[in-house]
Design a protein that fits this description.
This protein is mainly beta and about 260 residues long. It contains one helix and 16 strands. A hairpin with a 5-residue loop joins β2 and β3. Keywords: Membrane, Transmembrane, Transmembrane helix.
Length: about 260
């Protein structure tokens, strides 16, 4: 099949073949101005099908160049995933009938879309895994060194601070006492303090990382002057994943309101 390129006012795009010859074609968006019958499509170009050409499209070369030629492949009803219809090169066959050679191009959107979604999934997975082991730290926690510079020297052990008597001023709810997580501990701490007599919880901290402490905290209610036995529960969470509980500690102490 021998086809000859035909000029057309609707041809506003250029297709360059592997020999760098330029072929004007009608973009798909403009084909609405002219209904193209599928029976008039002689074949395809611009695609890489493992098929022998069914024809040749010829045309006048650019100034100073010889006649240009383009292999025309058989029309493919179903395009590949990454392919799209770009437009149609108008031409005539040997009998003078108007025909078209369909121009197939790569669809950048279809090529990049799976990459985008894979990147999105990978990014989401990375964020989830990176955030999974990081708790919401107590905003009141500050850098803190234990008395006499004591710190945990054994990463397989958990160093618990000791409590005896904690004092606070009557007429308020603020307590000035260090709820610490000693430096070198392999875990986060969370403190829960309850009244031993009633079991009522009067304070709960956020997560406290090693080497820091909450040194000023408020109990849930104002207490009259007196001595109150308290129960201090120290919850633990691994530094790698705070949801993984390690050995917790329980300390009995006395809260003195004066």
């Amino acid at each position: 099949m021998r086809l000859t390129e035909r000029t057309d006012a609707l041809c506003t795009k250029n297709f360059r073949d592997k020999n760098k010859n330029s072929w004007k074609y009608i973009p798909v968006k403009q084909t609405g101005h002219r209904k193209i019958n599928p029976k008039d499509i002689a074949g395809d170009t611009g695609c890489r099908f493992k098929k022998s050409p069914v024809g040749t499209l010829t045309g006048s070369g650019e100034s100073g160049k010889k006649e240009k030629k383009l292999d025309v492949l058989s029309f493919r009803a179903k395009l590949g995933y990454s392919q799209r219809e770009a437009g149609y090169i108008p031409c005539v066959d040997e009998a003078g009938n108007l025909r078209y050679v369909r121009v197939i191009r790569k669809s950048v959107v279809k090529i990049l879309l799976p990459i985008f979604f894979l990147a999105l999934i990978a990014g989401g997975l990375w964020w989830y895994l990176s955030q999974r082991g990081i708790p919401d730290l107590d905003e009141a926690a500050i850098a803190y060194q234990m008395p006499d510079g004591v710190k945990n020297e054994d990463p397989n052990e958990i160093l618990m601070p000791g409590f005896g008597t904690i004092t606070m001023d009557a007429g308020g709810t603020t307590v000035h006492a260090a709820l610490a997580n000693p430096e070198g501990n392999p875990c986060y701490f969370k403190y829960q303090i309850s009244l031993s007599d009633t079991g009522e919880q009067i304070y709960e901290s956020g997560w406290i990382e090693p080497g820091t402490a909450v040194t000023e905290w408020d109990i849930s209610e104002e207490l009259p002057e007196g001595e109150y036995p308290i129960h201090i529960l120290v919850q633990t969470g691994s530094l790698e994943n705070y949801e993984e509980e390690m050995n917790q500690g329980v300390v009995n102490a006395t809260l003195v309101v004066r």
